[in-house]
Design brief:
- The protein has 53 residues and is of the alpha+beta class.
- The protein has one domain.
- The longest helix has 15 residues.
- The radius of gyration is 12 Å and the shape is globular.
- It starts with a strand and ends with a helix.
Length: 53
């Protein structure tokens, strides 16, 4: 899925992350977050989903 967004600075904390993200007029942050969570779960298939979210 393509979001036409630019990810700027980010900080990875022990239990959460901070992002600076920018998108065009049609950008929907909730859809981007959903896509990010999906990608992370696919990258770590052996982990329990509850351990992430």
């Amino acid at each position: 899925m393509e979001f036409n967004a630019a990810l700027g600075r980010y900080v990875i904390m022990p239990d959460h992350v901070h992002f600076f993200i920018r998108g065009d007029q049609n950008f929907v942050l909730a859809n981007w977050v959903k896509g990010l969570k999906r990608a992370i779960l696919q990258a770590f298939p052996d982990e329990c989903r509850r351990s992430f979210w």
